[in-house]
Amino acid sequence: MKVGVFTALLAQMPLDDVLKKLKSNGVSTVELGTGNYPGDPHCKLSMLDKPEELQTFKKKLDDQGISISALSCHGNPIHPHAKAAEAYAETNRKTILLAEKLGVPVVIDFSGCPGDSDQAKYPNWVTCPWPPDFLELLDWQWEKKVTPFWTERGKFAKDHGVKIAIEMHPGFVVYSPETMLRLRSIAGDSVGCNYDPSHMFWQGIDPIAAIRVLGDCIFHVHAKDTQIYARNLPKTGVLDTKKYTDEQNRSWIFRTCGYGHGAEWWSEFISTLRMFGYDYVLSVEHEDSLMSPEEGLSKAIKFLDGIVIKEKPAAAWWV
């Protein structure tokens, strides 16, 4: 298993400087955004039609001894606004094609969320079963929007030798292990998850126990923590719409690894990932509003480097 970095937090730096910086910190793999919500500061989809640029890009990575763990294009490809959905979906399609050219095994995205009708302007995330309108809406969303898109896209990815890792994220139809497995049953085994434990914590889902539920559909992992502020829960609950920068009043915020949960928790998380077949990359994603990107990144790398399991296990000679 390796510690990697999602380079979105270094968007202001050119790729050459990013690679040198990360190499100096002992990082040998990166996750790169290709557009949609993460932007594309370090990896342009235009390289698909420009072989020379693509070769130059690959050489920069090779020269630093750094690989790409995943290409990320988090978006909403089933957005109710047709033009928005088309743009998100096209970025996803091109990202799959670029991943194929680069030999990158994983493309990360969100499942997306439709509206409440074909005339809707905004996504409508259903979170409760009553009044019954909500269940009718949820059935319509999955039948008419989620299933057609992801069935086609799962096949497209498989045809191009790429896996799609859906990040379970509130606000989208796939936000929990149950909804993740539902999508996988529809879209096929080329669709799995980008597992970010930070989104499990605040929903009341034990991220370690959930690994046992997800099993072999974990294709990629984000290393990000969450801190729950119990003193604010009686007032707000966990569905907290205050801005992430309103730290004093929120019931939870994202934290750098180790600042929400300690080494003992992360050691068990990493061990359970390996136990259930995941031995790939822990990609540091910095969204800690109490730390600068520079400090958050360096602390996360140092913290994880001390507990990540790097070597393959030996044969059990004691049995």
Give a verbal description of the structure.
It contains ten helices and ten strands. The protein is of the alpha/beta class. The chain has a single domain, classed as Alpha-Beta Barrel (TIM Barrel), CATH 3.20.20. It has an eight-stranded parallel β-barrel with strand order 1-2-3-4-5-6-7-10, surrounded by four helices. Strands 8-9 form a two-stranded antiparallel ribbon. α7 packs parallel to α9. The mean pLDDT is 98.
**What is the CA-based Rg, rounded?**
20 Å
Instruction: Count all strands and give the number.
Output: 10
Overall spatial form = globular
Assigned CATH architecture = Alpha-Beta Barrel
Biggest β-sheet: strands ordered side by side in the sheet: 1-2-3-4-5-6-7-10
Provide mean pLDDT, rounded. 98
Number of domains: 1
State which percent range the strand residues make up. Answer: 15-25%
Outline the secondary-structure elements.
Layout: E1 2-6, H1 15-24, E2 29-33, H2 51-64, E3 67-72, H3 82-102, E4 106-109, H4 133-159, E5 163-167, H5 177-187, E6 191-195, H6 198-201, H7 207-214, E7 218-223, E8 225-228, H8 233-236, E9 252-255, H9 263-275, E10 281-284, H10 293-305
Parallel strand pairs: 1-2, 1-10, 2-3, 3-4, 4-5, 5-6, 6-7, 7-10
Antiparallel strand pairs: 8-9
